[in-house]
Automatic annotation (TrEMBL):
Its EC number is 2.7.1.144. It catalyses: D-tagatofuranose 6-phosphate + ATP = D-tagatofuranose 1,6-bisphosphate + ADP + H(+). PANTHER family: 1-PHOSPHOFRUCTOKINASE, 1-PHOSPHOFRUCTOKINASE-RELATED. Belongs to the carbohydrate kinase PfkB family. LacC subfamily. Belongs to the carbohydrate kinase pfkB family. Pathway: Carbohydrate metabolism; D-tagatose 6-phosphate degradation; D-glyceraldehyde 3-phosphate and glycerone phosphate from D-tagatose 6-phosphate: step 1/2. The keyword Nucleotide-binding applies. It is an enzyme of class 2 (transferase). CDD domains: FruK_PfkB_like. Residues 12-286 form the Carbohydrate kinase PfkB domain. Keywords: ATP-binding, Kinase, Lactose metabolism, Nucleotide-binding, Transferase. The keyword ATP-binding applies. This is Tagatose-6-phosphate kinase.
Length: 310
């Protein structure tokens, strides 16, 4: 079973505006609420790929109820810790007619120690040996900045296949526990490599230097320029198809869900990268923050270019 964890979920309130200008009154044309948070998005995207997952997380108050309902509406097995008191955060996503998109992310509820312990206990009760575990999204609401590493360590006896989307010190610490896959962007890879990386050659060299951590797959996301992926001792450069970008929010979550899906289905790495990249490109054409058009993603798969590097 594939399990996602969202320690700091959100409702995404999208504000559609003609264009944003500082220091004046900007009039909203329309707003819409969607499910927010990264682990939750991976669960939704897996469902769109006809793959079941179990969503763990922590939700508070009426906004937390909305998050849980969004997931249930997609028939996802919701294993959230819920607290009446408090309020799950609302993130504000400003999408302009220019297709510029900006996120104003709230901090979210500070996670009390007891709550985190309850969540980890609930995961321990439900996860089976060698299950997949997706750890993705902000965790700055936890007093322990290494909370992802703590989860990995506390569940290490289950020999889980961990897919990790985090950054900074958390990523630096977590790779010591050899997750199966990490998905840093170029800045995040530069941070853990302690170098200001640019160009495929420097990226490849930096990836080789991470070999001691035995991470099976390192997918370096390069935004609209695709990705450079290390799979065991192989390197792939992936170029996405050109699409009409509406907004790029949620593309990374689609890419991660596509990787989890391909690996879970036993597809080879090239096929997995093709599916993940097409899902992400389809998401870029969507004017929401979650999900993608599955027919469009299928159509785009053949337009993804994958080069195996020496
Ligand atoms: O990737 C899209 C998204 O999950 C949005 O839904 C928005 O809620 C934001 O990213 C949350 O990211 P964070 O890193 O704050 O968990």
């Amino acid at each position: 079973m594939i399990n996602t964890v969202t320690l700091n979920p959100a409702v995404d309130r999208i504000l559609y505006i003609p264009s944003f200008t500082r220091n004046i009154t900007n009039r909203i044309r329309s707003t819409k609420d969607y499910l927010g948070g990264k682990g939750t998005h991976v669960s939704i995207n897996l469902k769109l790929l006809n793959t079941a997952s179990r969503a763990f997380g922590i939700a508070y108050g009426d906004t937390g109820k909305k998050v849980i309902q969004f997931l249930k509406d997609f028939q996802i097995d919701v294993q959230f810790i819920y607290e009446d008191k408090g309020e799950t955060r609302t993130n504000y996503l400003v999408i302009e007619d220019t297709n510029d998109c900006s996120i104003i992310a709230d901090r979210g509820m500070d996670l009390a120690e007891g709550i985190l312990e309850r969540l980890i206990h609930q995961m321990r009760m439900n996860l089976k040996e060698e299950d997949y575990l997706v750890l993705s999204g902000d965790a700055s609401n936890c007093s322990d900045p290494m909370v992802y590493n703590r989860i990995m360590k506390e569940l290490s006896d289950k020999r889980l296949r961990v897919f990790l989307d985090t950054s900074g010190e958390s990523l630096m610490e977590c790779i010591r526990s050899s997750p199966y896959l990490i998905k840093p962007n170029l800045d995040e890879l530069s941070y853990i490599s302690k170098k200001n990386l640019s160009g495929d050659e420097e990226i490849i060299q930096a990836l080789k230097e991470l070999d001691p951590y035995q991470v099976e797959i390192i997918a370096v996301s390069l935004g609209g320029d695709g990705s450079l992926v290390k799979y065991r001792d192989e390197f792939y450069r992936v170029y996405p198809p050109r699409v009409r970008v509406s907004n790029t929010i949620g593309c990374g979550d689609c890419y991660l869900a596509g990787l989890v899906y391909g690996i879970h289905e036993g597809k080879n790495i090239a096929e997995t990268l093709r599916i993940a990249t097409a899902a992400s490109a389809a998401a870029a054409e969507s004017n929401t923050s979650v999900g993608f058009d599955t027919d469009r993603a299928k159509q785009l798969e053949n337009l993804v270019t994958i080069k195996k590097l020496a």
